[in-house]
Every structure is written in structure tokens, then in C-alpha cells.
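Sequence in, structure out. Go.
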Amino acid sequence: MNKMLKRIIEITVLIIILIYFYFFTFQLSHDRLIIKESKAVISIGDLNSKKVKSYYQSYKKITQTDLGDSQKWVKYIKGLDLIYFNDFEIKNKEDKEVLVINLGWFYPIAKLKQTEYFDNLEKNYFSLKDIYQKKLKTEYDIDKKIYMTNYKGYYFISDDRKKLSDYLKLIEKKEMNKNISSKIKGNVLGEVVIDLKGIKQGLDSINVNIDYKNNGLSIDGYLYGNLKFSKYFNGIEKQDRKLEKYIGNDRIYITSNDFKSLAGFIKENINSEINSMLSLIKIFTGKDFEDYVDKIDGEIIYDYAKEQMILPIKEEKDFKDLIEVFVKKTGNKYLLSNGKTIEIKNNVIYYNGIMPEGNVVYKGDEFLNISLNLGLYSLILKDIYINIAGTVEENKIKIGTIITNKKLFEIYNRMEGKND
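Output:
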């Protein structure tokens, strides 16, 4: 018995050593996959995790679809990364892309079986067998030739053998893009990170992740930038807010304690033609667009369905002077050429009539609240609303929504033409 126990302990220790060797010595770390030349990464975690299984169960319940075949193929996948990179010195060259597959413990077994699916070319490069290439065409309408190689515990797939070769050479340089890798959470269903350094002033990167939690699908977008960038989106104090009661379906609510700086930031990043139009304001009034925006008293609410807006202002004179440059006053209102009216009273501008109070619960720490009618994108989804909220978190902006299982069920039924 003692000998058997000793043997079990020895085997256990050997297994632990092998695990350590595999994960800490043999297999590359995930960060190493995100080479310095990476421009964007789409990352999907373990497709057999408890969280993914929970999502599968919810999806199956909503769609009445058997995911047996899909789960059979993905149960060995510990992670997927689609990496877009660009190592060209010349600008405007198209990004290259490589799909990286982490099979975890199944990697050594997959290497033994890979010749069943791939033809060997040379130097550890392979091409998908014609029979499977034709299957991709007929079943999935994928007409590109598929190439594969493997290295340090991962499989690499692309439609161009040279892309694989270029990517592996860059991995061997051991230089990483930390602007992307530091933003990847790794504990969600899937995420996209885009590197914006040198492209957009004030913005470093964008991260969009999808997760399944609390019986709903959460979609969160993060804008990363410097502290100055984040300050543009700080709302006014809760006790100073006057328009919260108007938040409701089909409406957009924005609060900022510095609309002037926010307007300046937006101007730097909008279409040059719009910028030129805004510059006309100074020609007619002698004041910049930002000077008028600076007079907004911390909040704006807009109803995009009824085309109504409420705009509190710090003083009326400048806005009256601006409006009267373009339209004449009729009674106590300004009548615009599009038939809409503008009324100013008690330091509040009402566009297209008085807006009734809303019906959406507001948390209070949000600088942005949008009640989005999905019917704007498809009439089939008319009057299905999702609520999008924006908050400031240190040096990043978060904009997110949660779609409950009930709402997902309703969306699916509408798309499938079902009544229930």
C-alpha cells in the first residue's frame, strides 16, 4: 500500500511538473500574441467555460435550437484571437489578419491528427485539404484558400501563407502592443480592442466587450484617453440637474460641466465640412460656436422621435441674438423654415414645443442616457427599447447596455416572424 501511495504521489508530482512546463515554458503567453504591430484584436475566451455554457443554455431556450454540433466542435477551444496587424512602412497599406487558436491540452493530440485535415507544404506550413475547402465553399460560402501553421502551443490560420510567415517573424521579436494587451479583460464572452494612438487626438484605444451575466447580455464600450479627454464628460452635480424627470423612451440625455471644451474636442474630430459650417456663426455674430455652447447650463435632452429639445441656458441674450440672425420672431416664438418653433423662457430653450415628462429610471452618475428604439434600424423591432448609459471611470469613458433574456427572446421572435 505504501509503495502504491508513493507511486501515486510520484505520478502526481510529474503531472504538476508537466503542467508547469507546458503553461509557463512551452506555450506562449497571451500578451506575446499581441505583437507590437497589432492594430486591432478580436478576442474570444474559453468556449467551454461555465459562463459560455450558461449562455448556450439561454440561447437554446430562446431560439429552441440544438447547439449539439456547434458545441462538439468548440469544446476543445480555450481561446480564439483574430489579430489585425500592419508592418508596412508605407501608410494606407491594408492590414493583415491572422486567426490564433488556443487548444489548451488538446494541442499535442491535434498535432498528431492535423494531417487528416491539412496537406503538408514545407517548413511547418500546411494548406486545408481540397475536400474541406469545398465544404467551406458550399456550406459557409468561404472561397478563400486556408493556410495553417503551429507554434508554441497555438494554431495560426490565414488566407495567405505569407501573412503567417510575417506574423511569426514578428512574434519572435518579442515586442508587444501593451496599449491593446492591457485593455483585454480575458474574462468575458468576447471583446474587440482597437489601437488609436497616433490616429485620433486624445484617444488611445477603444474596447468593446460582450458578456453574459445576471440573465442578460451586456455590451460595454470603453474609450481610453488622457485625463483631459475624460474631463470633457464629467456631468454636473446631481442636485443641480433639472432635466432628469424628462428622461424617457426615444430620448437622449447629456450632462457636462464643460460643454465648451467638449464642443472643442468634438470639432477637432468631426467632418471638415461641418466644421466650416460652424465657423459661419462667427462671421454672422462675431462669436465662436464654442462661446455659445459655453452658455448651456449643464444639460441637454432631445426626443429624436418627436424632434423636440430642451436646452437650459445661463443667459438668454446671446442665444436670442444668434437665433434672430437666421429667423424672425412671431409672437413669443421663433418660426423656422422647417415649420418647427423655438421658444425661450426662464432661461430655457424649447425646440418644437413643450416636452412631457419621461418614464426611464435614471441612476444619477451617468453623463449620457439614450433610450434607443431598435425600430430605427428595423421596423420589425419597432418599440423594443434598449437603454444605453455613459459614465466616466478615471481615464476612460464607459458606454454600455444590458439586454435581458426576456428582451432577447422578444427580439428573436420578431426577427423570426413569431407572435409569441
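Check: The chain has a mean pLDDT of 85. Residues 2-26 form the longest helix (25 residues).
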